Amino acid sequence: MRRSDREIKEFDEIVKVMERCDVCRLALNTSDFPYILPLSFGMEVKEGNITLYFHGALKGTKYELMERDNRASFEMDCSHELILDEEHGNCTTQYESVVGEGYLEYVPDEEKREALLILMRHYRAEDFPFNERVISQTRVFKLVVKNVWGKTRKG
Q: Which residue in 134, 153, 120, 104 sits closest to 6, CA to CA?
């Protein structure tokens, strides 16, 4: 990281930034260009390991790419604020961001419900009574995070 003064070094602080984010951009490998998509997500942290959960339709490009190469990168950011310095004719942006990489896996049918609850918990809607019949029509997958970095610029 070029700007080490902006690096978030503590694991717990990186997790707190992730908790404040509401979209995770997932980047998958193709033969030509990276394929990136914004996704809703849930997060589970156990014993210093992060797992991100996602859901979607039963078929699609992301699954085809995932089956060819399950390596993925991700990015999420929050706390954006434009800071104008009219006196000096400068502007900058305040932000917090996290990037990382890991391996994608499908969540088995018997674990889908719990994974979806983790997703809902992230959006503070854990008690939302969702229609259980949609579980069989939903594909749930996870990213087991291997490396993660955080960066911030405040004030």
A: 153
* Best CA proximity match to 62, nearest among 53, 70, 74, 51: 70
Average pLDDT for runs of 10 along the chain of length 155:
76 97 97 95 97 96 96 96 84 92 97 94 84 91 98 84
- What's the chain's average pLDDT? 92
Would strands 42-46 and 49-56 be described as parallel, antiparallel, or unpaired?
Answer: antiparallel
- Tokens 């029509």 correspond to what residue? 137
Q: Which amino acid is at 18?
A: M
Q: How far is CA 40 from CA 55, 104, 148, in A?
A: 8, 15, 18
pLDDT at 145: 98
pTM > 0.85: yes or no: yes
Cα–Cα distance measured from residue 64 to residue 84, given in angstroms and rounded to the nearest whole number: 44
3-state SS assignment for residue 84:
strand
Residue 66: burial class (beta carbons within 10 Å; 0-12, 13-18, 19+): buried
